[in-house]
What does this fold into?
Amino acid sequence: MRIQVSHPELVPEVLEYLQRQVHLIVEQVGPRELEVSQLGSMNTRARRLDLERLLQAWRAAHPHASVEIVD
It folds into this structure.
């Protein structure tokens, strides 16, 4: 799944946060975009919900920023 970050200077912080999750593989693919792959046997809906949960936690600590899953 692709993640878009509102400000390019926040990308390294979001990248580091997501890379700390042992079931995620994260790579920067653009100035404001990350590609996230999830390990495990979850279906597509469960994967999206899991990633959204993680992003909500990050957003709560960074109310000035926007991080969204891009379809």
Q: What stands out?
A: The mean pLDDT is 93.
